[in-house]
């Protein structure tokens, strides 16, 4: 669909908005000033410009979003701390937009975008990782509510989240993909218990979430009963775009850390390491340009399997580059800042120390779709190769071996 | 070269079973996790008592005249491999192999006897990653001054062996300042050591240090083979019992092929390490080549096995509660230890006449 909004139109609207709302005062003021500014920006349709009018957008092309973000940043305006609300912005919002009722969109999107309400994602379970559709958390209908029992895992931000997007089994008697429904859970409801999950870096960036009789009103269901898998596809495609799809300059991300280490220590240089660094530099640049191209394609439509390719190469490269950095640093790379169990709210894969980067990168090929699952998506959905014979798609979920 | 024995003798097999059985009881994944999470002791003292005194394994490389078993390199490699398989937090490699070798067989020093009995431990005061000649500290009037960064197992060592101007000196641990580092591999913690006119006695010539480093490279490679074999065995077992998509994850060909390749690589590493150990035991005709080969191949298989172990376990492999990360950290740290594969490839290139430079 051709957009009527041009870049010039958008810039004019932003200038008009900034003339009425002093960005510097909002940035320098208290939380209330900051929030008032963000709410006004949302109401003016300048939050996510590709969203519909009335929901923080202008129905503009996706490609115009950087224009808005850059203009507000240049004016010194406060942002919505996107690092803290990545799940809301990247996954919950696109799903609510596509599958939510108008009441749900009205209720959730504005405080989501302003950062007043943090979101988390309750999908993975100990027994359902790559095979997400095999999950076992039960939702049983009780009057106007659903009653939830089960355990979720790998939930970042659950300890500060107000809402969760949640996938649960509403019918165990049908094949697994058909028995799922998609809900919005109030994380402050009784029966929701959040426990930190320590990871191999020493930190607890994630949580386990135990659901014991937690209730969800039926008005917080997204999509029809039994349509949860379809709704979840919107979330997952957007997740893969948000992991590894960000715009970076040359030597942005992990390769920049390795390049800096190479430049700063001539004594560590060897012919073998030089070859490794240069090969990785080239691969990183190829991946960066590919991500740029995919983003341009995306500006014209919804995320597709290309996002899987971007995420796959991001994970592989992060692991190879962070490993090469440790190899280059030698003894010095074996020193960590701490093993304390911190609870970070914003995660920087390139942060802390070389040991952290190496260890954290191991998660990149597991979280948000393992590299193995992503390869299957590329092989089957892009290349059209036949799927392996399936033993799990026509049997009632309750009868599957596990 | 051709008559070196690369397979285990019945005695070596018995030793392996004995050490493995002891470790299964006294050094489980959970006990090592508790050790690491505590972040307090320099090594597991109770386990070390069993290894050194209970099983008498600290003196395998100490000459019989000083109360040891006498140059039992093959046995020491079996022990190193089994300790690696258990990521055991004990100073076998640093004290019973590296420090002991650095003291040299000719030294009729009482220290050797006490290391052999496990009564004391020692650490060679060089950076963990050292692969060539060490920087020498200053020795004057029976005292040593200087600093060394990132020394393995020095935190709990009773004695530090210090390469200084005119020889290797022994310094009491209590006479130095040690600062613990949050180490990538907390099962073998590093510390920085400062010597300020620390009282020292000359115990060996400097010529023993390269010998100790070469032995270290070979023995750490044995440890890496043990580590990799745990990773492979544990991953194979998990892929048989973990179901996704209604079938065992191990039935997916993409994973089976990777594990088959890993098994092939591990089989080769076992042969390469067996060769380096056999060469050491036989007096070392091909010593430098064999040690570099072992360190390269061992490091590569250990890192790859540990990385595959984490990945194929999926989410649980990324947690603190699962022991896989202990192996990943040990694998990566030992890859750096005593010379990275990159450093050893460069050395090997010279040794086998494959120079980089155009002549």
TrEMBL record, chain A:
Residues 120-205 form the Acyl-CoA oxidase/dehydrogenase middle domain. One of its GO terms (molecular function) is oxidoreductase activity, acting on the CH-CH group of donors. The keyword NADP does not apply. Residues 226-383 form the Acyl-CoA dehydrogenase/oxidase C-terminal domain. It comes from the Bacteria. InterPro entries: Acyl-CoA_Oxase/DH_mid-dom, Acyl-CoA_Oxase/DH_mid-dom_sf, AcylCo_DH-like_C, AcylCo_DH/oxidase_C, AcylCoA_DH/ox_N, AcylCoA_DH/ox_N_sf, AcylCoA_DH/oxidase_NM_dom_sf, Mycobact_Acyl-CoA_DH. GO terms for cellular component: plasma membrane. The keyword Glycoprotein does not apply. Keywords: FAD, Flavoprotein, Oxidoreductase. Residues 8-116 form the Acyl-CoA dehydrogenase/oxidase N-terminal domain. Belongs to the acyl-CoA dehydrogenase family. This is Acyl-CoA dehydrogenase. It comes from Asanoa ishikariensis. The lineage of its organism: Bacteria, Bacillati, Actinomycetota, Actinomycetes, Micromonosporales.
From TrEMBL, chain B:
The keyword Flavoprotein applies. One of its GO terms (molecular function) is flavin adenine dinucleotide binding. Residues 215-349 form the Acyl-CoA dehydrogenase/oxidase C-terminal domain. Its cofactor is FAD. Gene3D superfamilies: Acyl-CoA dehydrogenase/oxidase, N-terminal domain (1.10.540.10), Butyryl-CoA Dehydrogenase, subunit A, domain 3 (1.20.140.10). It comes from the Bacteria. Pfam families: Acyl-CoA_dh_1 (PF00441), Acyl-CoA_dh_N (PF02771). Keywords: FAD, Flavoprotein, Oxidoreductase. Residues 10-119 form the Acyl-CoA dehydrogenase/oxidase N-terminal domain. InterPro entries: AcylCo_DH-like_C, AcylCo_DH/oxidase_C, AcylCoA_DH/ox_N, AcylCoA_DH/ox_N_sf, AcylCoA_DH/oxidase_NM_dom_sf. Belongs to the acyl-CoA dehydrogenase family. This is Acyl-CoA dehydrogenase. It comes from Asanoa ishikariensis.
């Amino acid at each position: 669909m051709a957009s009527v909004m041009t870049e010039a139109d958008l810039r004019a609207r932003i200038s008009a908005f900034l003339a009425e709302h002093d960005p510097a005062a909002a940035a320098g003021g208290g939380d209330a000033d900051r929030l008032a500014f963000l709410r006004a920006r949302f109401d003016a349709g300048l939050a996510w410009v590709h969203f519909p009018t009335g929901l923080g957008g202008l129905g503009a092309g996706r490609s115009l979003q950087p224009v808005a973000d850059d203009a507000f940043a240049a004016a010194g305006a406060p942002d919505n701390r996107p690092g803290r609300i990545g799940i809301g912005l990247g996954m919950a919002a696109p799903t609510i937009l596509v599958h939510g009722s108008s009441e749900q969109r009205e209720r959730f999107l504005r405080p989501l975008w302003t950062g007043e309400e943090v979101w988390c994602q309750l999908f993975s379970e100990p027994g359902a990782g790559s095979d997400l559709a095999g999950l076992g958390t039960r939702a049983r209908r009780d009057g106007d509510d659903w009653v939830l029992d089960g355990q979720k895992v790998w939930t970042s931000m659950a300890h500060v989240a107000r809402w969760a997007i949640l996938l649960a089994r509403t019918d165990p008697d049908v094949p697994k993909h058909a028995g799922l429904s998609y809900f919005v859970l109030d994380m402050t409801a009784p029966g929701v218990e959040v426990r930190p999950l320590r990871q191999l870096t020493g930190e607890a960036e994630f949580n386990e979430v135990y659901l014991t009789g937690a209730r969800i009103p039926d008005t917080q269901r997204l999509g029809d009963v039994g349509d949860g898998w379809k709704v979840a596809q919107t979330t997952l495609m957007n997740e893969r775009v948000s992991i590894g799809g960000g715009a970076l300059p040359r030597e942005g991300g992990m390769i920049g850390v390795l390049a800096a280490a190479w430049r700063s220590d001539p004594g560590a240089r060897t012919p073998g390491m030089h070859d490794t660094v240069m090969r990785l530099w080239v691969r990183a640049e190829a991946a960066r340009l590919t991500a740029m191209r995919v983003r341009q394609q995306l500006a014209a439509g919804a995320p597709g399997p290309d996002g899987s390719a971007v995420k796959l190469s991001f994970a592989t490269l992060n692991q190879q580059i962070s490993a090469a950095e440790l190899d280059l640093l030698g003894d010095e790379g074996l020193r960590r800042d701490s093993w304390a169990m911190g609870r970070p709210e914003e995660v920087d894969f390139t942060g802390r120390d070389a040991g952290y980067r190496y260890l954290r990168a191991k998660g990149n090929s597991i979280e948000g779709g393992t590299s193995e699952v992503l390869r299957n998506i590329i092989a089957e959905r892009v290349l059209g190769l036949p799927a392996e014979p399936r033993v799990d798609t026509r049997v009632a979920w309750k009868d599957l071996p596990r | 070269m051709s008559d070196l024995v690369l397979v285990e003798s019945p005695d070596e097999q018995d030793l392996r079973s004995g050490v493995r059985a002891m470790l299964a009881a006294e050094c489980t994944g959970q006990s090592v996790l508790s050790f690491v999470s505590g972040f307090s002791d320099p090594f597991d003292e109770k386990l070390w008592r069993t290894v050194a005194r209970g099983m008498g394994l600290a003196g395998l490389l100490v000459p019989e005249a000083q109360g040891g078993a006498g140059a039992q390199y093959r046995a020491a490699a079996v022990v190193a491999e089994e300790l690696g398989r258990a990521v055991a937090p004990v100073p076998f490699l640093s004290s019973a192999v590296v420090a002991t070798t650095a003291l040299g067989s000719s030294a009729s020093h009482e220290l050797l006897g006490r290391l052999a009995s496990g009564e004391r431990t020692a650490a060679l005061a060089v950076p963990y990653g050292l692969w060539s000649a060490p920087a020498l500290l200053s020795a004057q009037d029976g005292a040593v001054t200087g600093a060394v960064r990132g020394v393995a197992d020095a935190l709990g060592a009773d004695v530090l062996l210090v390469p200084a101007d005119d020889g290797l000196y022994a310094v009491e641990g209590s006479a130095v300042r040690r600062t613990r580092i949050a180490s990538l591999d907390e099962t073998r913690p590093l510390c920085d050591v400062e010597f300020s006119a620390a009282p020292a006695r000359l115990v060996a010539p400097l010529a023993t240090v390269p010998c100790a480093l070469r032995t270290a490279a070979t023995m750490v490679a044995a440890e890496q083979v043990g580590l990799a074999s745990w990773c492979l065995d544990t991953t194979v077992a998990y892929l048989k019992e973990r179901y996704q998509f209604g079938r065992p994850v191990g039935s997916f060909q993409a994973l089976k092929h990777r594990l088959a390749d890993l098994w092939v690589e591990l089989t080769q590493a076992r042969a390469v390490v067996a060769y380096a150990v056999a060469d050491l035991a036989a007096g070392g005709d091909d010593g430098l080549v064999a040690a570099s080969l072992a360190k390269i191949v061992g490091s590569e298989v250990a890192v790859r096995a540990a990385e595959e172990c984490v990945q194929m376990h999926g989410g649980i492999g990324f947690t603190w509660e699962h022991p896989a990360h202990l192996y990943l950290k040990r694998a990566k740290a030992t890859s750096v230890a005593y010379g990275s594969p990159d450093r050893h490839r460069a050395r090997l290139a010279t040794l086998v006449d494959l120079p980089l430079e155009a002549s």
